[in-house]
Amino acid sequence: MSARQATTIEGGKARKPVTVASIRNAKGAEPLVCLTAYTTPVAQALDEACDLLLVGDSLGMVVYGLNSTIPVTLDMMIAHGAAVVRGAKHALVVVDLPFGSYQESPAQAFASAARILAETGCGAVKLEGGAVMAETINFLTERGVPVLSHIGLQPQSVNALGGYAARGKAAAEAEAIVADARAVAEAGAFAVVVEGVVAPLAARITSTIRVPTIGIGASAECDGQILVTDDMMGVTFGHVPKFVRRYADVGAAMRAAAEAYAEDVRARRFPAEEHLYGAKPKIAAG
Ligand code: KIV
Q1: What is the rounded CA–CA span in Å between residue 106 and residue 244?
Q2: How far is it, in rounded angstroms, from Cα 272 to Cα 206?
Q3: 193 pocket-lining for ligand 1 (C-beta < 6 Å)
Q4: Could you read off the pLDDT of 129-162 as tens digits, one per residue?
Q5: pLDDT by residue (tens digit) across 209-264?
Q6: What is the C-alpha separation between 130 and 152, in angstroms, rounded?
Q7: Contacts of 170 (CB under 8 A, 6+ apart)
Q8: Which of 195, 225, 229 to mutate to test ligand 1, by most ligand atoms within 8 A of the CB atom?
Q9: Model pTM?
Q10: What is the spatial distance between Cα 157 and Cα 218, in angstroms, rounded to a whole number?
Q11: Residue 236 has what pLDDT?
Q12: Three-state secondary structure along the chain?
């Protein structure tokens, strides 16, 4: 039995792994719980609470300290995707197609997605782009690649869009985003991430399309929510977007632990007796 086939037992009930079909069927039901993960231990910690774990290209900024997601490579996504799959038994793992690995043509997108699916064992890929990506989404889904779409604020287009400001304030832009949502849903996306749009627009998109919307900086009207885990855990330092609620201060806990360790080492209180390997007692001769 593979890790993905294994079920977990909770309160006597077997919890089955979440599938693409169960995400698609969650439209209008209990909201989908989604977070990002980039490593095995974090995936293990989040797995039971989540329906979907996204190996987002946000790892470029969160893990590697890059300024944007643009320099993230397919090899980086595959390494982190495989690590997260090893830690997830319940949640559906989705891996981002990074910038430059799918925009050129549907065939390029298929080659990149096929590598991700084969080399990580994840259940689906995510790609950014609305109507302009409909042909690619159709090409992938017709060939057995489940696609999570990502519309509204698209971080990979930050150079073209000129920043991370919320989308859909102007009526024309709102109409274009609704058209994007329709196009990607009709092309076969099993769900749509809606990022950084004004709240009424997120509600309108959710009531317009037949597949679930997963909001980030959108609204509670979406069929699910996603956040960057490090943001909501308080691990990222510097600017935190308005739409993030901090559920923990793991960064402060790490700093405090490092300071306590430093004090112990400097005072020779660590390592203590219980941390030492003793020599084997000698057997007395004769
Ligand atoms: O890369 C990422 O983490 C994402 C989420 C913010 C949706 O795309």
Answers
A1: 34
A2: 58
A3: yes
A4: 999 999 999 999 999 999 999 999 999 998 887 7
A5: 999 999 999 999 999 999 999 999 999 877 889 999 999 999 999 999 999 999 99
A6: 8
A7: none
A8: 195
A9: 0.92
A10: 18
A11: 80
A12: CCCCCCCEEECCEEECCCCHHHHHCCCCCCCEEEEECCCHHHHHHHHHHCCEEEECCCHHHHCCCCCCCCCCCHHHHHHHHHHHHHHCCCCEEEEECCCCCCCCCHHHHHHHHHHHHHHHCCCEEEEECCHHHHHHHHHHHHCCCCEEEEEECCHHHHHHHCCCCCECCCHHHHHHHHHHHHHHHHHCCCEEEEECECHHHHHHHHHHCCCCEEEECCCCCCCEEEECHHHHHCCCCCCCCCCCCCCCCHHHHHHHHHHHHHHHHHCCCCCCHHHCCCCCCCCCCC
**Short-list 169, 107, 101, CA closest to 136:** 107
Q: Enter the tokens of residue 276.
A: 């030492």
* pLDDT band at 286; cut points 50, 70, 90: low
Catalytic annotation, pick one of 10, 104, 173, 195? 195
Are the beta carbons of 201 and 221 closer than 8 angstroms? no
Cα(156)–Cα(97) distance, rounded to whole angstroms?
Answer: 10
Residue 281 token pair: 């007692």
In sequence order, the β-bridge partners of residue 32 are 224
CA-nearest of 19, 18, 34 to 213 is: 34
Task: Name the residue of 34, 39, 53, 57 whose CB sits within 8 Å of the most ligand 1 atoms, as the mutation to test its pocket.
Answer: 57
